[in-house]
Design goal:
Strand content: 5-15%
Helix content: 40-55%
Number of strands: 8
Radius of gyration: 18 Å
Order of helices and strands: EHHEHHEEEEHEHEHHH
Number of domains: 1
Largest sheet: 6 strands, mixed
Number of helices: 9
Length: about 260
């Protein structure tokens, strides 16, 4: 399953008064993850995987945070009546979590295991500190399947695109609060493998052929990783790789046609 919790910066009409004069903030990395939804859609298409995504701004409600997290809502909403926040949770948060859970459970019922890739991007610089990575793979070190998949994915990326800096559990800790941890609390390691994929937004800002080539590199490297992962784990319910195995490949460091 592919998901994208921060795919847009939309503020529904009933809540726009809370964001007056905040256009710059909504357009920044604090409002959404630029490029994350584009990558999520291409991953879902490449692997014939279900896609769950949202286009509301994370400032309205952060779908990758637990209820009760201090930054679940933007500051002006945190000062609003509790009824307003509850209405947002009922209208946007709960249905998103329910849809993601439905897709995950369907995959487990059908195949015995689900691999969940949550698509995100991160700002190149935060609080004056430059992030020194192109790609981050976030996982829980206590989950062997997640460790194995990320180790292999990083190795494939290094072999195919050595110019890319790929780091594990960077720029955030993979076991921190998020949708993947929410699933880990409900599902066994044998049922669920959850990875947050983080891409440096400097590549999104470049746009054009370089950004397209990076997305193809990620897709192709994941295809190779999943083929190897399925073979090594020898699961009783094999991953359906019919689509992944036939995905059209282009040179990773080249420009796609």
């Amino acid at each position: 399953m592919i998901s994208c919790e921060h795919g847009g910066k939309r503020i529904p009409a009933p809540y726009r008064s809370f964001f007056l004069g905040q256009e710059g903030l909504l357009n920044s990395h604090r409002g959404f993850d630029p490029g994350a939804l584009t990558l999520a859609r291409e991953l879902a298409e490449a692997f014939s995987a279900p896609l769950v995504f949202a286009t509301i701004s994370r400032l309205l409600v952060d779908l990758n945070r637990s209820v009760g997290h201090p930054r679940l809502h933007f500051e002006s909403l945190r000062k609003a009546p509790a009824s307003a926040r509850q209405a947002i949770l009922t209208r946007y948060y709960a249905p998103y979590r329910a849809q993601a859970e439905k897709r995950v459970n369907q995959a487990i019922a059908s195949c015995g295991r689900v691999i969940h890739i949550s698509s995100h991007t991160f700002t190149p610089e935060l609080d004056g500190r430059v992030r020194n990575a192109d790609i981050g793979l976030l996982y829980d070190p206590a989950r062997p399947g997640e460790v194995a998949l990320c180790e292999r994915w990083r190795a494939v990326l290094h072999a195919n695109a050595p110019h890319l800096v790929v780091r594990r559990n960077y720029p955030y800790a993979g076991k921190g609060d998020g949708l993947t941890r929410w699933f880990r609390q409900r599902l066994t390691p044998e049922q669920y493998v959850g990875i947050e994929l983080e891409i440096n937004q400097k590549h999104v800002a470049k746009g054009g052929p370089p950004w397209r080539a990076l997305r193809l590199a990620i897709i192709e490297s994941l295809r190779q990783t999943l083929l190897d992962f399925a073979t090594r784990t020898a699961e009783p319910h094999p991953i359906n790789l019919a689509k992944a195995g036939s995905y059209r490949r282009w040179p990773i460091t080249g420009t796609p046609p």
